[in-house]
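Holo model, iron/sulfur cluster. Inputs:
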Amino acid sequence: MCLGVPGKVLSIGGADGMDATVDFFGVRKVLRLDIVDQPVAPGDYVLNHVGFAIRRIPPEEVQETLALFETVLKEAGAGDLLAADVRGEMAAGRAAPGGPDGRG
Amino acid sequence: MGAADQAGELKFRDPARARALAEALAREVAAVGRPVEVMHVCGTHEQAIARFGLRAAFPRDLHVIMGPGCPVCVTDTPEVDEAVALAAAGARVCTYGDMLRLPGASRSLGDVQGEGGKVEVVYSVTQAVEIARARPAEEVVFFASGFETTAVATAAAILGGVPANFSVLSAHKYVPAAMEVVARLEDTKIEGYLAAGHAATITGWEIFVPFARATGSPVVVAGFEPLDVLAALLELVRLVREGRPEVANLYPRCVTREGNRPALEKLWKVFRVVDGDWRGIARVPSGNLELRPEWAAVDARRRFRIDTALVGGAAKNELADRCLCGLIMQARKDPSDCELFGKECRPEVPVGACMVSSEGACRIWHTYGGAPDLRGVGA
Ligand code: SF4
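Output:
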């Protein structure tokens, strides 16, 4: 019910122009645009909640979040991100259904 | 551009970054020098944690507890009975899938459906409205569960105009109210909270500032990708270590300070908060969302005289008496503490609400391998 999956808007239509056809990693759904926070256009990413787009995700903010992770890590003194060792603990994580690269 | 964006999204699952975050988290918890207990209040966080095996990456001294974050699980028995009674009286009841097997006093909506009752699973309130339009001769009731984020959708549908034979039976709940209740429970020692990114997308993060001040516990707004959860926990533990009861937003790609204003306007135009019972937790002051009096025409409770006496069974369910859902949602027990877990109680034959919903703690632990929590291992 509360899935955190973003999807890409393919087209907008419907009788009142409030139906968006959205691609969720290969699955197409029609979302209502009644409560989305900003105007949405094809190519945008939106967050879906029970058939309603609740947020347009600006592409810059996807980048911003990634940058934020880097900052959090630096402040925590983690050093070079890519130099991190492969630890058994995360290997155990990867064995879980779906795995960290899976979409479950 | 699409491919690049999608690649950007997938970076939130990058194993190297996840490892680095997990290690930083371990160092942060070690720096605290004692076990740290934090709570998340969103079933989707538990799903992300279980699905991506994140619990295995948490330091042993970090206890991440699942709070009352599953809207289906906290839907109270009398609310289910109202829906069952309406269906028994001949109305067509539409609801979200997880609600079907949620036990009422004696029957679930799924039971009613099996007996030939008109119960339909919908993915969205929009679908329920369409069903009402297509069947003008029937009374169509949307049994609406979910937190404020979901209630916004219900509100938008009502404001968008619904046919005369459509009404709403609201079991919508308001999360901030429940966080206050859980924070005040005596024998929990939760030091910080992960707030659900979805709810905060609508409410904004500022709403948690008074809560953080009043409880002395930091709140971090988190998204649902593995890196979102790990980074948010890292920030949360740091705020705990530094004794700063602040609110941090680690989900800026979706959450702003003030939230989705137009959505909030719609929400409060249609709903208001009232005290309500949360299954297994408590009576939560301002915990329920009910339709405002101006919407009486679409409020199933005002439109119909709902008699639950006919469907409420006095039959005592011996198994249900042994269910620990309530204690689990209050962070006092784990699913594995329940003697019915995986035995008498399974997703196909759920005893308690926590095994019904895909956001319920018992269901998630069952789906993703029993007890994906290593806190007991080697301790
Ligand atoms: S396993 Fe079933 S009976 Fe036990 S606490 Fe969970 S839902 Fe209740």
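Chain A has two domains: 5-57, 58-104. Chain A touches chain B through 58 residues (CB under 8 Å).
Archived with the compound record.
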